[in-house]
């Protein structure tokens, strides 16, 4: 039962992270680590408190700063964080002199004094959104029971949900052939009915380009 609850919680968290990350345009992919002389990076409560304090200072310097951040549990047992950032005027970026595999400049954040950082400019928001979600694993959940597992600034855009009753076969056919289609995902959804019986169904999620939709209406 505990294992089932972990899976459900993991699925909900991943969906939330993906929803927020895909609804915003990002500028930087950031990694934040901790100096063991300053922070006990084996202690999740300690690292999350330090992270939140740092974010408060950064937002104080720039109210428009936007972010979503997730933890990663390293094999060593230490925690560090990865995040997507936008409106980054308050972050003091310094060229590290290194490049990533794609030849992009790797920066350090000079006003982060808790350890070490890397920051690279994002060229593909969709890919970055999927990449950041991979750090949220079942192992992480087991080691952070009843703890917060992602941080998103309040100014992040969130998806608008519109419910409509449509013919499923015809709707799926139209969406599959739509010129507005950006991505398609099939996810499992498990729920328990009033008699305590669990049911698992599939949900098909289509991501459409709203700008193309508006263009089609004009034409």
Write a structural description.
The protein has 219 residues and is an alpha+beta fold. Helices cover 32% and strands 29% of the residues. A hairpin with a 5-residue loop joins strand 8 and strand 9. 17% of the residues are buried. The mean pLDDT is 86.
Summarize the structure.
The chain has 219 residues and is an alpha+beta fold. Helices cover 32% and strands 29% of the residues.
Described by the principal axes of the CA atoms, the overall outline is globular
Gyration radius (Cα, Å) is: 20 Å
**Quick check: average pLDDT?**
86
Helix content: 25-40%
SSE topology string: HEHEEEEEHHEHEEH
Q: What's the helix count?
A: 6
Number of strands: 9
Keywords:
219 residues, alpha+beta, 5-stranded antiparallel β-sheet, two-stranded antiparallel sheet
Task: Indicate the topology.
Layout: H1 2-22, E1 28-32, H2 44-61, E2 66-73, E3 79-86, E4 93-99, E5 105-109, E6 117-121, H3 125-133, H4 138-142, E7 151-152, H5 168-176, E8 181-192, E9 198-208, H6 210-218
Helix pairs in contact: 1-3
């Amino acid at each position: 039962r505990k294992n089932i609850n972990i899976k459900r919680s993991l699925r909900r968290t991943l969906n939330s992270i993906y929803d927020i990350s895909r609804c915003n345009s990002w500028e930087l992919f950031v990694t934040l680590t901790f100096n063991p002389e300053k922070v006990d990076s084996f202690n999740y409560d300690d690292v999350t408190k330090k992270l939140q304090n740092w974010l408060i200072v950064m937002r104080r310097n720039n109210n428009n700063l936007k972010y979503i951040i997730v933890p990663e549990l390293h094999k060593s047992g230490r925690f560090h964080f990865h995040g997507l950032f936008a409106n980054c005027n308050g972050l003091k970026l310094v060229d590290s002199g290194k490049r990533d595999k794609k030849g992009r400049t790797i920066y350090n954040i000079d006003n982060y004094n808790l350890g070490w950082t890397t920051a690279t400019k994002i060229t593909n928001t969709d890919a970055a959104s999927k990449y950041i979600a991979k750090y949220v694993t079942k192992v992480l959940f087991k080691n952070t029971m009843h703890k917060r597992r992602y941080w998103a600034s309040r100014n992040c855009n969130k998806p608008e949900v519109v419910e409509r009753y449509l013919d499923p076969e015809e709707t799926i056919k139209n969406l599959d052939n739509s010129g507005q289609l950006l991505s398609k995902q099939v996810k499992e959804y498990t729920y328990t009915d009033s008699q305590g019986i669990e049911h698992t169904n599939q949900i098909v999620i289509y991501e459409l380009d709203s700008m193309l939709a508006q263009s089609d209406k004009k034409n």
